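User: Predict the full complex structure for these chains.
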Amino acid sequence: MVPLSHYLILSAVLFAIGMFGALTRRNAIGILMALELMFNAVNLNFVAFSRYLPSTMLQGQIFAIFVITIAAAEAAVGLAIVLGLYRNFKTINVDEINLMKW
Amino acid sequence: MTVIQVVFFLVAAFTTAAAFLVVLAKNIVHCAIALVFTFFGVAALYVLLDAEFLAAVQVLLYVGGITILLLFAIMLTSRISARGVKIMNEQVGVSAVVVFAIFALMAIASLKGFALVGSPPPASYATASLGRLLLTTYVLPFEAVSILLLAAMVGAIILARREREKD
Amino acid sequence: MKLVILVPLLPLIGVLINGLFGAKIRGRAHLVAVSASGLSCLVAFLVLFQAAGGGVLDWDLYSWLKVGDFRVPIGILVDPLSVVMMLVVTFVGFLIHVYSIGYMHDDRSYARFFTYLNLFMFSMLVLVLANNYLLMFLGWEGVGLCSYLLIGFWYEKKSAADAGKKAFIVNRIGDAGFLLGLFLIWSVFGSLKYSEVFKAVDPALGTGIYTAVTLLLFVGAMGKSAQLPLYVWLPDAMEGPTPVSALIHAATMVTAGVYMVARSSPLFDLAPFSLEVVAWVGGLTAVFSASIALVQNDIKRVVAYSTISQLGYMFLGAGAGAYASAIFHLGTHAFFKALLFLGAGSVIHSLHGEQDIRKMGGLWKAMPITAWTFLLASLANAGIFPLAGFWSKDEILFNAFKHGMTVPWLLGLIGAFLTAFYMFRLFFLVFTGRFRGDAHAAQHLHESPPNMAYPLVVLAFFSVTVGLVFGFPPDHGIYHRFVAPMFEAVHEAAGKAAHASLSSEVGMAALSLTIAFLGVLLAYQFYMKKPELPGLLADRMKGVYRLLLNKYWVDELYQAIFVNFGKRVCAFLWGVDSGVVDGAVNRSSWLTVRLSFLSAWNDLKIVDGMVNGIADLIQGGSLNLRRLQTGIVQNYILAMSLGILGMLVLYLFVFR
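Assistant: Here is the predicted structure of the three-chain assembly.
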C-alpha cells in the first residue's frame, strides 16, 4: 500500500519544481508552463486527500475538476496577453519589460 | 514491496523527470513536449488513485487543449532558435534556496501530519458519484464556471485581436 | 444771593479772553480786564447788601471729589468774614487795575499783564469764598502761581526770574505744613468742609490734636504771609511791577494767611499754645522787619518791610484771640499800603525807573497829588488818630494787653514807634528838601496821568475815613457788629470775656498815640532839622548799622544752609540716576542682545535641524525603499514566495 505521505511529498516536489520555474524562467510562455505544473501538483494533492480520508463526498475530485477548468480558462487568457505583450514589446522575455520600474 | 508501490515509484520518477525538463530545457518546444509527458504522468497517478474520470478529463483538457494552445503561442511569438540567449534570470540562486526551503517544510508537514500507513478505504464507483455531485450539491459552482469560461473566451478574443488600423 | 458766583467768574472770563486773544487786542486788553474786575466789585457790593441783613449762604455747586468716604465739593460760603474779604479784594483790585492802565502803558506784554492780574483775582476770590479747606488750598496755590508769574513778569531780567522762583519755593515750604494740617483735619474730623469740621469740634479731644493741627496750618500762613522765618521772599518780590506789589504783596495775597487763621478760629481757640505761638511770631516779625526798614534805601523795599511788619500786627491780634480786630487791620492796611505802593510807583514812573531814595527829594512841588496822598497813607500807617490805621492797630494792642500777652504787646508798642519813624523818614527823604538826583531827571519830573492819580485819591479817601466810620467805637463799631456772629460763640466758649473799663482803653490809646508821635518827631529831627544826624549815628553804631542794612544776613544764611545742601543732594541723586539706573538699563539691554543671539542659534540649529532631519530621514528612506519596485514581475513573485515561506514557518513552528 502506498501511504498518503508519499503522494503528498510527490505533489510537494512537483509544486517546488513548478515554483522554481515560475521564478526563474525568462520566457513568458515558460512561466505559464511552470504555472500549469503547479496546478497539477495541487490537483494531485486534492485527489490524494479525497482518496485517503474517509468521506463520501469526493470534494477533492470536484475541486480538481474545477481547477482544471479554470486552469484552461486562465491559460487561454494568459496566452492572449502574451501575444499582446509580444506585439508591443517585440519580446517575451519578462525581465526586459520593466516599464513599472521606479 | 507490492506491485502498486513499484508502479507508483516508477510513475513518480517519470513525472518528476519530465517536470525537471519542463523547467530546465533550453528549447521552448522541448519544454512543451516535456509538459505533455508530465500531464500523462499525473493522469497515471490519478488512475492509481481510483480517479479514472479525472484522469480522462486531465488528458483531454490539459494535453488536448492547453498544450495545443501553448504550442500555438510559442509558434506565434518566439524565435525558436534561441542562440546564446540565457533562459534563467538573475534570481536563480535565491529562488532555488527559497523553493527548497518551502519544499522541505511541506515535506516535514506531510510526514509529521499524515504518517498514515495508507490503507485506503474500499473504492467506490467515483464517476457516477462525481456526476451526481456536480449536478446537485455543486451545481452552483458548475454554472458559475460556465460563465467564467464564457468571460475568458470573450476576453481572450478581444486581447488577441489585431489592431484595426493595420487593415 | 446766588449772584455771588459771578464774583470769581467774571475775572475768569477776563483771563480766557485776554489769554486767548491777547495778542490780537493788545492795546485794548485793559477794557476786558478792568471791566471784569469792576463788574465783579459791583456784584460784591450787591451781595454785601443782601448779607448785611444777616443772610448766610453755604452753597455746594458741584461734587468735586468723591473717593469712598472722602467727599469734597466745589462750594461757596457767604458769611460776614468772607464778605469782608471779598469786598477788600474786589474793590482794591479794581482800583489797581485802573492804575495799571497808565503804569503799564508802554510795556511790551500789556495783555499778558492783565491776564495774570485777572487770574490772580479769580484765585484770590476762590480762596476767600471757598466753603472747604481743599478749595481754599486750590485758591492758595493759585495765588502762589500768580505771584510767581507776576513777580517774574519781566522774565528776561535774571533778578526778576530768580525772585519769582524764590517766592514760589519759600511758599511751598509753608504749603507743605498746610497740607499736613489738612491731612490731620480730615483724619480727625472726617471732612474738610468748614461747617462740618467746626460742628465736630469738641474740647474733649484734648488740646494736643488742636495744637498740632493749628500749628501746621500756621506754618502755611507763615509762608504765605511772610512771617519769620519764611518772609525772605517778600523783599525780593519787589522786582515785579509796582501794581503787582500793591495788589498782591500788600493788600491781598499776603493777607490770605490771616484770613485762614481767622477762618479756623474754632480750632485755634481750643489750642492756647498755638495762639501764643502766633502772637509771639507776629510780634517778633513786626519788630524785626521794622528794624530792617529803618536803614533801607530802596523806596519799594522800605514799604515791603513795612508790609511784613504790619502783617505781624495782624497775627499778633489773631494770637490774642481778637480775630475781628486782625481782619479789621487787614482791611485798613489794604487801603493805605496799596496807596503807599501806588504812590511809590508814581514816583518811580516819574523818575523813569529810579528807586533809590538817596537820589530823590523835594518832589512835593512837582507831584502834589502823589505827595499829599503819600502823606495821608504814612499817617495812617503810623497809626495817627483819626486815620484808619490808628483804630485797627490800637484795637489789636489793647486786646493783646487785655488777654495778658504782655511781651507781644510790648513788641507791638516798640514796633509802632519804629513804624512811625521809618515811614516819616521815607516821606521826608522823598518829598521834602532839595532834589538830589541828576539834572536830566530833574527836568522830567511830572505828576502822574489821571488814570494813575484817581485811584490814589480814592484810596487816600478811604484810608482816612474807613477806620472812623466802621471802627468807632472800638470793638463795637459797624464792622464789629457785622462780623460779631462769626467769633462770638467761640469767645464765649473760650471764656475770654475779660471786660476792661473804658478808661483803660482810652489810656492805652493815648499811650500808643504818644509813642507814634515820638516816632514822627524823631524822624523830623533826623531828616528835616538836622540831616547830618543819621550819618553820625550810623558811624557811631557801625556794627548795628551794617547788620540792619544787610537784613541780618538771613538770605545768606539760608543760601548756605539749605540751598547749597539741596544742590549737593540733587547732584548726588543725578549721579545715582545716570550711573546706577541708566547703567542698569543699558546693561540689561546688552544682556538681552546676547541672549537673543543664543535663542537665534537654538532656533536655527536645533529646531530647524530637527525639522530638516525628519524630512531628510523620510527622503532617504523612500529613496532606498523605491528600489523594491524593479518593474520585473518575477521579483515580486519572489517576494511573495518569501512571504509564503515565512507563513509556513510560523504555522509549523510557532502556532503549534
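Residues 492-498 of chain C have pLDDT under 50 and may be disordered.
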